[in-house]
Amino acid sequence: MSSSVPVSRNTNPQSSKQTCLLVLSSPEIPKSSLFLMQSRFPVLFDTSKVEKYNVLDGTFFPSVSFTGGHRACAYLDPYEPKHASLKSFFMSTLASKRDDFIPLFRTCLSTLFIDIEDGMVSQKKAGFNKPSDAMSFNFVFRLFGNKDSSDTKLGSEGPAIVDKWLALQLAPLATLELPGFLKYFEDIFLRTFPLPFFFVKSDYSKLYDAFYASSSSVLDKAESFGIKRDEACHNLVFLAGFNAFGGMKVLFPTLIKWVGKAGEKLHVQLANEIRTVVREEGGVTFQALDKMILTKSVVFEALRIEPPVPFQYGKARENIVVHSHDAAFEIKKGEMIFGYQPFATKDPRIFNDAEEFVGNRFVGDGEKLLKYVYWSNGRETEDPTAENKQCPGKDLVLLVSRVFLVEFFLRYDTFTVETAKALALGSTVTFTSLIKATTI
What residues does heme bind to (predicted)? Predict the structure, then answer.
């Protein structure tokens, strides 16, 4: 690969040096533009200007063998006819499951908390990620399949199978942080050639068969949208495994990490709000959750400071000009646009103490800042539609995050954690103390 030369096409050369547009070129990849500022980032969501064809993972596109020979909805551009059918199917399916969300997730959380408590008793500390992954997979499978995943041929292997399936697809995006010259071996092993599907072929067949056998009502619905059952099931596996489980695998440890680091003062405030509202409303309901203003803000703040998917990509449909706080930049048709979301959502011109976790940031007038939160591949103030690329499960993600905090602080007063950077995205979290609730 030839060397790349950064080029800034700034239409205002007097602008601040804090804003930049990086254009990279090589024979193998299209020219690329890197967005670092809040004000330019939303162009990535404008599908009239930006194409989303096979750019979920940037310039790398995994083999369709990983999805049964079909391009999953996440890789489709909204202008492709199948995109609207598949995304409408997803949103309709989730809407039909709405009444199951809270009771099912609360049931799954009970098992998670028991596992954590057992670890605290036996070893005085407890890892969070592994039992959280098991809980998340079981919740997702039960939501779509109406049975526990352990009651299928998957047994207890579901999370491990999905982890392997995801790792082989996303390996080129991983960074092992090897020292010195060993980084070259990482490039050779991970980024010279795509890892083959056959390493996970039998496992994926087992995963697909479990969903196909358990999700007949969901697949029936797909046919009403003109989608064949086989293609619908492969997309369902992708939605459940890649989008839902993969997202929760990063989201819940991140949420616990930041709330844990915030300390006992925030824990007391959350516990007071949650227990008061639950007592007044007579339970954990949609109406009760909507009244928990601080709890909602804490979830938004975790999603702002460390979004589960930090990278967004698109390819310019035409020559476009995007504006930063104090400059304008030209992007040529066909250039790849890369957005690193944490730079945008921690823009100090938008957020005070942008690098700090502020639990009540979005309380009161702070709600006006929600339009600058982009974790769902769109503004927090906007909704997913069949015509855009915003996460179809956006509302479900927010809901389960709030329910997670509610159930946690109904059960516990405060806690401490140790954290470390995970191999891919997110963090590994270990509970070092966990104090059960003294009042309800």
Answer: 391
